[in-house]
Amino acid sequence: MKSKKRIFVISNLFPSEKDPSYGTFVALFTHELQGYSMHYKTDLCVIKGRTTSKICKLLKYFWFYLSMTLRILFHRYELIYVHYITYSSIPLLFLSKIKKLNIVFNIHGDDLLTKSKVAENVLQAVHKLLINSKLVVVPSEFFKDILIDKFKDIRLQNIFVSPSGGVEKSFYNEMISPVQSPFTIGYVSRIDTGKGWDILLRAIQDIYKEYPIQVKIAGTGRQVEELKHLISTLNLSHIVTYYGALSHAELPQFYTNLTLFVFPTTLKESLGLVGLEAMAASKPVIGSAIGGLKSYIKDGYNGFLIPPGNSRRMGECIVNYINLPDERKLEMNRNAFKTAQLYQSNIVIKKLIERLIQCIDQA
To answer: Is the dihedral of CA 88, 91, 94, 98 positive or negative?
Structure first.
């Protein structure tokens, strides 16, 4: 009997029971890869969930690196698939000198647009690995351009655009009924600097006295206490509900219960999958005209684009949508759903896996 070819998936971000939204795409991709074919076996080396303890973090990385090193040294892998090209790649710098490695890198965001000097130094250290890899997967054309600009010697034919696993079937809900009441605005993202939760609250402060609205916020992060404090300071507690972190399974219903979704980030998001998930539930999206968001939010068609950080403009767009005739609102809902259909996960991941199999066959 012919032995199975082995694929090794490496990621320093992976969901845990306490942190279900951490690296969900990696989990989805791995699940699809494991079920793709009886001819391939997938091994996994990951760090599950976040930790605030520096000691715990160091221990997690120690076992992560040790496990990765031992498996690569003592097993033959036809392909090594690395999510996040900085810290996940450190042992590969050493291993590549003593063993031939067929590597695919998947860039997600901060690993290319680094936020610290250490991360930037690691990125430059893995430059040669990146250039010599079998494939580099990026989530959007926007990030492809950034990659090419940063590593001008990279081979264009080795770059593959794949939108972060796409949107799962459970998120799709085509709304053809009249626009629901009460008017409910939703936010799903990290509660961290640059994600725009404060921009949303200030936009709501400007309009809530004239328009009956509800706001639902889901997510967790370093600024949860600041979020709660600002809600109280702006006297918004009666219209804003904070849900904390929701599991991936809870999100489809969360989106379904909204009227409008907001994505007020000021960061250069590599894609911004939550916006597409909301569109799959037929919700127009008000998002910042920045990064990957511009690739799928079309102003006046399936949502509205605003200047990053502009709470006044966000408030105006919310009011504009409220004042639209119902038929026009439903048209935008349908357009949002049509946009999301282009990002169905079964199609997106199938194309990616087929490209990976080509890499194995060409090795």
So the answer is: negative
Per DSSP, the three-state class of 252 is helix
Asked if 6 contacts 75 with a C-beta cutoff of 8 angstroms, the reply is yes
Distance of CA 57 to the CA centre of its chain: 22
Q: Which residue in the block uniquely carries the two structure tokens 């076992």? A: 63
| Chain position carrying tokens 């507690």 | 237
Q: What is the pTM of this model?
A: 0.89
Max alpha carbon distance in the chain (Å)?
Answer: 72
The C-alpha atoms of residue 72 and residue 361 are separated, in whole angstroms, by: 20
Strands of the sheet with 285-288, listed across from one edge: 240-244, 213-218, 183-188, 260-263, 285-288, 303-306
Residue that has been written with the tokens 């647009």 in this structure: 113
Give the DSSP H/E element, type plus range, for residue 60.
helix 54-74
Confirm if 146 and 136 have CB atoms less than 8 A apart. Answer: no
Query: Which amino acid would we find at residue 204?
Result: I
Of 206, 328, 336, 241, the closest CA to residue 282 belongs to 336
- What CA–CA distance (Å, rounded) separates 46 from 44? 6
Q: How would you list the strands of the sheet with 40-48, edge to edge?
A: 40-48, 5-14, 79-83, 103-106, 135-138, 159-161
Task: Give pLDDT tens digits along the chain (363 positions).
Answer: 467 889 999 999 998 887 777 888 888 888 888 887 677 899 999 999 888 899 999 999 999 999 999 999 999 999 999 999 999 999 999 999 999 999 999 998 889 999 889 999 999 999 999 999 999 999 999 999 999 999 999 999 999 999 988 999 999 999 776 666 789 999 999 999 999 999 999 999 989 999 999 999 999 889 999 999 999 999 999 999 999 989 888 999 999 999 999 999 999 999 999 999 999 999 999 999 999 999 999 999 999 999 999 999 999 999 999 999 999 999 999 999 999 999 999 899 889 999 999 999 886
Length of the chain: 363
